[in-house]
TrEMBL record:
Organism name: Seohaeicola nanhaiensis
InterPro entries recorded: Ald_DH/histidinol_DH, Ald_DH_C, Ald_DH_CS_GLU, Ald_DH_N, Aldehyde_DH_dom, Aldehyde_DH_Superfamily
EC number(s) on file: 1.2.1.-
Domain Aldehyde dehydrogenase: residue ranges: 32-482
Active site: residue positions: 260
Keyword Oxidoreductase included in the entry's annotation: yes
Pfam families named in the record: Aldedh
PANTHER family linked to this entry: SUCCINATE-SEMIALDEHYDE DEHYDROGENASE, MITOCHONDRIAL
Coiled coil: none
Identification of the protein by name: NAD-dependent succinate-semialdehyde dehydrogenase
Amino acid sequence: MTLDTVFTGYADPALHSQGLFIDGQWLAGGGIPVIDPSTGDVLAEVADASVADAMRAVDAAEKAAAGWRRTPARQRSEILRRWFTLMTEHAEELALLISLENGKALPDARGEVGYAAEFFRWYAEEATRIPGEFRPTPSGSHNILVDHEPIGISVLITPWNFPAAMATRKIGPALAAGCTVILKPASETPLTAYAMARLGAKAGVPAGVVNVLTTSNPGPVTNAMLADPRVRKLSFTGSTGVGRTLLAEAAKTVVSCSMELGGNAPFLVFDDADLDAALDGAMVAKMRNAGEACTAANRFYVQSGIHDAFVAGLSKRMAAMKVGPGYDPATQCGPMITTRAVDKIDRLVADAKARGARATTGGEAIPGSGYYYPPTVLENVPVDADLAHEEIFGPIAPVYRFETEEEAIRLANQTEYGLAAYVYSRDLTRAIRVGRGIETGMVGINRGLMSDPAAPFGGVKQSGLGREGGVHGILEFMEAKYFAVEF
Ligand code: NAD
């Protein structure tokens, strides 16, 4: 399948633009190939921004900043709401585009578009409810008035695994808060970001409020933007390693940072869990996006009494999944993003096997030109295997056995990450107690899917700083300003 076949018969063939989007203008350019991971073929080429292009984007964001900040909240809200509507109207072509450049199965891509669009609807509503405070000091000396002001020009950097949702989760609150932005999507999946920018312009986003650039040189280009004193915010989603580098860079100009980084989610199943519900949840938590999700269950800890039934049930469901190109309607598990990703999974599985793990299904990469790895269940995995500590980012479910609640909590916390965790038990009191004992920003209780635009998404430990979504997300793009008022 090619881009043209995806767009034949669709409403807006121009959706797959390939140039930089700066100051409301499309600048021609090429240099970065976009690969279809189901075949390894080149789908398109997108522009490769230089430092000078990035500076032009900062100029554009600055030129638009004062007008956007002064635009009444209701008007900003209506623009975001129109963008939501346009994404909904174009949902099918956006889903195909995501499937094509990212590889994810169409149901996952459709789910992502719906989830992504909802951030615009949610923040269209939040834009009109920005909080303030007024309160006398306890001593009665004066009055405290607190305003929330837009933080300023924001650089948004997003990964390839959710090309639409990671962008709207940042653009929505930034625009609602009154900030102008420069979005740098991942080079693997830029077409979705450019398609959404086109819809944003149609929705009435003024020139310069949202700028989008792709680059093969993300370090120098981002560093140049962070060094510019006009840039006041960095919102990054990606790996913990790159996050650390960016935090160090942002420290030089004391730029405010929000960081959504890697995960290593534990999935705990207690003897008293509803087995079918736990298996349903495990499939969602593991296989959404073929395991390429920061919230993906990375370690299954299963209590002894239910362990064998869980492994048997999970192996059966994983073995039944249809692997293929994301855009084939029959596909349930698409390809990985790159050959590098397949090699990493191969290494982790080989290490686990060498330490005594056994694959009950899958366990070997699928040869051919696409980047496929089959759904795999590993049992008898020792807790010191590399995949117990590293983010797998693929369709591998390693299962570990535990005996007691204390042991489960201890194992769950044996990681530098702290993004998401899952707990399955019919005893809600226990599930909450265990959830409180686990060091993560989010816990799914008898539920395998937790992402929702109305909820605060984010991690603790080395999984990040700050929250996206909910009422929390907009404050990441605002500064509290205190007025001491005497009257
Ligand atoms: P990555 O860190 O390699 O890249 C993320 C983004 O950063 C891309 O746009 C990339 O081009 C850019 N980048 C890379 N080096 C850079 C540099 N030196 N300076 C500036 N930008 C740079 O991550 P990835 O492989 O694209 O995504 C997978 C990772 O993202 C996983 O670790 C996953 O857990 C994480 N993730 C986290 C969340 C979350 O919400 N916590 C959500 C999705 C993905």
